[in-house]
């Protein structure tokens, strides 16, 4: 960003001062006002937080949500990086309505095929340039990862019923879903903790690819990647290469780490280790895929094609619950030349109404060239965030790709020491952001450092954002962070 552009943007935020902070302002926004500010506690829904009251949403359009208390909130996180086209898109609503009006919103996939389902699968395969071969459609990212784990195991079982391949290698501080199999693959210790006795014991781990916390002083990308590849190779040797089914990772880590992108060359090096030993290379793009990172698939940033890939969130843009597994030709061939059957199924897989919504979302993205907008506006968001918040004493790192950006908060910028988890820093930033006068969403995350400690927020706006929207997001983020991290002795 040029000096004049930085000056112009900074001028818009001239009334907001950043002062060095050594302690966190702990008085929560709206403490004790759970029912007086348009917030409601549910009496009937078993939600994620039983003691917390939430603003009630009455409608939405484009980038905005309308609340029962009269406020309009700008959604700068697309919910959980889901609502990529924003709210109330008339084309998608019409596609859903048209499909329902056929009288067929659901079909049992064991009995029937459907043309709109086939069209969606064709659209998705074409989006890979034909480098993937088939699509398994399901209802959520967790279900997609569950299916991918089974597909990977059955791939080897098809040719050898006594195959010794029983182990997966995943990464520390990772998150791949909350069903038992998907959570078992995950390495996020806090999310695993209540269910640890139930989880698979055949998941083994290597470190994540987190340059901010792991790169040595003066270490180049090439050296960093070589170190990661050597670690994966060592894990293969420890387990016995012939016992490993595959390696699982996110190209850009979402909720667990806060938009941490792989170092250039990392994915290629990991795939080479896998293929050297006949194992599968599996990518989880539930959060970072389908255009979120400026290319339709995150692996297309470096053209590192996986053997299996999970999709979700941006696939249907929140208009229907839908996710998928993309399957490479070699995996499909093993099934075609073997049993010809995937020993797995779910009631609501490949529903026509889900497919109709997702197909229209994908067509809109393609026809309106929204991947380019995600790339262009994402680059501008990076410049704005780094120019306004790069020197803030409690912002340790700003990282991401496309319209997928994370801010990691630290107690000490020099040592990168995280805040005490009991302080709830990320949640406090989020609660402040969605409150008046800021009225903007951010997606909070914890356990960034080790699965327990560490706080970050994610900014993942819709693919329809404009330059002016980006400036607003950066400005409000600055205001919110400045509000939460007040200087010593300041209390309100």
Strand content: 15-25%
Rg estimate, integer Å? 23 Å
Query: First CA to last CA: what distance?
Result: 35 Å
Indicate the CATH class of the largest domain: Alpha Beta
Proportion of residues in helical segments: 25-40%
Number of domains: 2
> Going by CATH, what is the homologous superfamily of the largest domain?
Type I PLP-dependent aspartate aminotransferase-like (Major domain)
Taking all residues together, what is the mean pLDDT? 92
Protein name: Putative aminotransferase
GO molecular function: pyridoxal phosphate binding; transaminase activity
Cofactor: pyridoxal 5'-phosphate
Family: Belongs to the class-III pyridoxal-phosphate-dependent aminotransferase family.
Name a few traits of the molecule.
single chain; 492 residues; alpha+beta; Aspartate Aminotransferase, domain 1; Aspartate Aminotransferase, domain 2; seven-stranded mixed sheet; four-stranded antiparallel sheet; 18 strands
Tell me what you see in this structure.
- 35% of the residues lie in helices and 16% in strands.
- It is an alpha+beta fold and 492 residues long.
- It folds into two domains: 162 residues, Aspartate Aminotransferase, domain 1 (Alpha-Beta Complex); 278 residues, Type I PLP-dependent aspartate aminotransferase-like (Major domain) (Aspartate Aminotransferase, domain 2, 3-Layer(aba) Sandwich), CATH 3.40.640.
- It has a seven-stranded mixed sheet with strand order 6-14-13-12-9-7-8, sandwiched between helices. A four-stranded antiparallel sheet has the order 15-16-18-17. A three-stranded antiparallel sheet has the order 3-4-5, with no helix packed on it.
- A hairpin with a 4-residue loop joins β4 and β5.
- α13 packs parallel to α15.
- The longest helix has 20 residues.
- The relative contact order is 0.17.
- The C terminus is likely disordered.
